[in-house]
Structure formats: C-alpha cells, structure tokens
Design a protein that fits this description.
There is one protein chain. The chain is of the alpha+beta class and about 80 residues long. The protein has one domain: Glucose permease domain IIB (Gyrase A, domain 2, 2-Layer Sandwich). About 35% of the residues lie in helices and about 30% in strands. The chain has three helices and four strands; from the N terminus they run αββαββα. A hairpin with a 2-residue loop joins strand 3 and strand 4. The longest helix is centred in the last third of the chain and has 12 residues. It is globular and about 30 Å long. The mean pLDDT is about 95.
C-alpha cells in the first residue's frame, strides 16, 4: 500500500477532512487535533497500518512508525486538494 492510499485511509479513520483541525508529524506518530473525537474509527486506523491510537481530549496520536512524516505530508496534500 502506497503513502497516498494509507493517507486516505487515515483521513477517513480520523472522521474525514472536515474533522481534522490541525496535524503534525512527530518521529513515529502523527499528532492530530480533531473537532469531534466520537468520529474517530480506531479499527479503520489500525487497518491503515497504525500500531496504536492514543486519545487525550481532542488530541489524537496515531502511531504509524518511521513513515509518519511521509504519511502526514501526503495527508496534507490530499486535504489541500493537490
């Protein structure tokens, strides 16, 4: 599975583009601020390759391993419509 496909699945697992308020990569994880954490689909995130999902209020950390930077960059590209 390529970065574009993984990124699309992660976006969907986070409740879609409209639910993602902010995100940034952090070594092995993607830190995400969401509007509604009830829209998070943890099984879908794990199916996309997440090793784990940590929820702290509206902040979510999706553990994607060493490719987190590449996946986050592709997510940003998809969300910006490029």
């Amino acid at each position: 599975m390529g970065f574009e496909e993984v990124a699309g699945q992660v976006i969907a697992g986070l409740g879609g583009k409209e639910n993602i308020e902010n995100m940034e990569p952090c070594i092995t994880r993607i830190r995400v601020q969401v509007a509604d954490k009830a829209k998070i689909d943890e099984p879908a995130l794990k199916a996309a390759g997440a090793h784990g999902v940590m929820k702290m209020g509206s902040a979510i950390q999706v553990v994607m391993g060493t490719q987190s930077d590449n996946i986050e960059a592709e997510m940003r590209r998809i969300m910006e419509g490029e």
